[in-house]
Amino acid sequence: MPGHTFGDRLRKARKLAGITQHDLAARSGVSLSMIRKIEQGSRESRLETARRLASALDIPTTRLLATEPRESAPPVDHDLWAELVATVTAPSPGDIEEEPTPAGVSTGLNSAVDLYVRGRFTDLATLLPALVRDSTALADTSLQMRVLQLTGRLMTQIRLYETASTAFDRADRLVPDTLHGASLANNRCWLLLRSGRLEEASDLAARWAVELEPRLSTATNGELSAWGAMLLRVAATAARDSRSDDAQHALRLATAAGAMMRPGGAEEARTAGFYRGFSSVTVAMQRAERAMVEDRPDEVLRLADRIGALRLAPTVNSRNRHLLDVAHAQIRTRRYGEATETLLRVERDAPQWLGHQRYARDIVQAMTERRRKLTPEMRQLTQRVHLPT
Description:
By secondary structure, this protein is mainly alpha-helical. 69% of the residues lie in helices and 0% in strands.
């Protein structure tokens, strides 16, 4: 249904289903006033709301979405990132006093990855411009690609999407093998998903999942990690597109991949750019994310008890994202004190990361809207996610 507003598409789909606005509100849990405003064109829809409406109408979310939903997001400090943006969009080695070496750039990249997984974004604003310039001056295209890939991930994280896309485009011309290509595709999926381009993300993830499927009896940890990580992208996009069966199938396959992983982790995949580690734990976290997307908060909390994320190191990439699902589920079940404690734990461990999460902003806003009076801790969280009080 191209060429129409979200409200037009929703009204047409609702009428085709033969139900009233009251019926849709009852089925979806979206308020009647919200549905009226959306159909009248006076209110834009968030992706979560679009998914709930599509699920109630038994259609894919992408039938309702044509462009990125307009959602409020934490502000971006453009001055802080100006040098890095310029380095990515106008590549030039610049004036380098000492010729860079592969060993030096590799050491710098390892330091940058460590800062990224710990959420030290401000430090990366200082380190990455020189690292991008130095890597550009090298003949080692694989190393250059990994620097650009990390830069693209960071730009996606802070919502500088055009710069992220440019970094990935530059990296794409330097891909040395299938594993590196898979990691780049995985990052592109995340960029597409985060910027609301759900259908493109779904198509890309599905295509690569098919291409990467290994022979389980002989697959290396790197191959299993790459396939498993892409299956998690398939599950994430399918859940948001109201394709529950597809999400469940992808998670079953990812479970099999996780079970076949050998001791010692997957350094091969991490070297190729899979900074979000893959294991049976990350599969379980994706199951919890799917349950939250499908508005099953009790299931999220049941899975969270089994995962025990608070026992994991804060540098486990999926851990903090999973804790946001836990906090969301706690709010949905009116456990506001527990939700506050969960969010404060994330803030303590990854304050810069939390400040860039639109999902965290939505969660804190939902909590504050349900409370008559905010505690000092809740006010602290509103400030962290840049939410007016």
